[in-house]
Amino acid sequence: MILEIVPLTPSLLEFPFEWHYVRSIIYVSLYVSLVAVALSTLFSLPVAMLVGFSEFRGKQLVTAVINTGMGLPSVVVGLAVLFTVSNQGPLGSFDLVFTTEAMIMSQFVLAAPVITGVSLAAVGSVEGGVRDAAYAMGGTRLDVALVTIKEARYGIATAVLAGFGRAISEVGSVLIVGGNIAGPDGTSKTRTLTTAIQLEARQGRFETAMLLGAVLLALVLLVNGILVRLGSGSGTGGVR
Amino acid sequence: MSLEEPVVAHRSTPSGEPILEAADLYHGFDGEAVLEGLDLTVNAGEVLAIIGPSGVGKSTLLRLLGLFERPDRGSIALEGTDVWATTDRKRLASRRRVGTVFQAANLFDASVRRNVTYGRRIRRSWRDRVRHEIDALLGRATVDEPVIQALETVGLADALEQDAASLSGGEAQRVAFARALAYDPDVLLLDEPTSDLDPRNTAVIEDAVRAARARGIGVAIATHDMHQAERVADRTAVMLGGAVTEIGPTERVFESPRDDRTRQFIDGELVY
Question: At what angle do helices A206-233 and A18-53 cross, to 10 degrees?
């Protein structure tokens, strides 16, 4: 009997553009997710502070809406963003269909409720006495807000990383609004790790799909590692 | 200059003169009256104890005196100026001359140094604050002398770089006191500051109260501990039914109260 030795690792030589292809996909994934999370954070943090600090009629409803937003179905978000940027939509004139900008928009919509909701919980968990102390020492409203952010820093960092996790592992909406496009030379235009995995698996190129999956898993693990590290550091300070 | 030194030349109100005055204060929550026509004066360089049963409104009064909230009616004046009849900027300036220490220490999740320097830091310009933060990150920041002095007053000068979370309850409260002393307020409001402390930490806080008085600070201390009032207060005000029923030199108030309800309260006969 002749034994065939099967290599345990996929031969990348079978795909002459493989590394270039993989690198460009990682770049697009990180670019879209990081920009979306940065914009979401800039939007979500003030909203969380505003809702967390003020007492108004309907506050519980607003909080419920934010929490509901955390579970938004990504394909529905993708559909809504696609309509918004399509020729019939309000942003049709900007020609954003199948662009990274449209993908950023959809990931913004998905990440913002997560960052807002978790930040709101973190801000709400800061004891009123600490805010009173800052005020008692002559702090302005801005000073008190800064103290609150600092006290809630671990929770807010968790919120941002959770938003990043939601964005980077998202497949439905980026597929709809990005179109999963790669150029003829294998350079990703709007192809992300998740959409590429879906495509490669569908076309039977399991080695590439698994390689991309491993990269995605490594990124998610990295994010979770940071989360765990932050969690274990809570209560001990950080920058003193 | 030591904090214990009775040098008060920089204060605009001489010791013994009124610095913070509440007149005809009315305040309540959800339609329920807590303060009903309360009058009170805190003098510079004296300790005024405010005693009364639990729930009588001592904490509410201190929150109003600390300018945390506006009274429903009546006025609060700092050196004769009604603080609620001025601009926001002037009111902030007034608020920054009043310090408050609460029953709970409420320390920030940071080092003792960051806690005690906070009051001084926020009084600087934003430019100085940013520069100070950069210096702190680079390990170049120096500690102001008043911060060291304030910590010396509460016996915790060695704890400067310690994590606030690692302090005992008594130490944390002493840091909270130092935090207020460090920015040298003209008035210090203390809301049951020793109710959770052991005798040793209580003694340290009481010594710090005397040190603040020696510096010309007007101290108002709300306490349910009548012995503490006798130990530290020059004058004592008794609060009953949302108003001050008796105020005067501590010894006189305890020895021969003029108001019948005050006498019953001091003798433990008042049912409330």
Answer: 30
> Number of A:B CB contacts under 8 A?
66
CA-CA distance, A235 to B14, in Å (whole number)? 44
Q: What is the pLDDT of residues B36-93, one digit of tens each?
A: 999 999 999 999 999 999 889 999 999 999 999 999 999 999 999 999 999 999 999 9
Please tell me the predicted confidence (pLDDT) of residue B271: 64
- Which CATH code for domain A18-232? 1.10.3720.10
Interface of B with A (CB under 8 A): 66, 68, 92, 95-96, 99-102, 104, 106-111, 113-114, 118-119, 122-123, 137, 163, 165, 176, 179-180, 183
β-pairing verdict for B98-101 and B32-43: unpaired
Mean pLDDT to the nearest integer, A211-216: 92
Mean pLDDT of A23-46: 96
Q: Where are the domains of chain A?
A: 18-232
Long-range contacts of B246-252, Cβ-Cβ distance < 8 Å, separation of 24 or more: B247/B40, B250/B49
Would you call A236 and B108 a contact, using CB atoms and an 8 Å cutoff?
no
**Could you give the ipTM of this predicted complex?**
0.90
Residue of B109, B122, B179 with shortest CB distance to A151 = B109
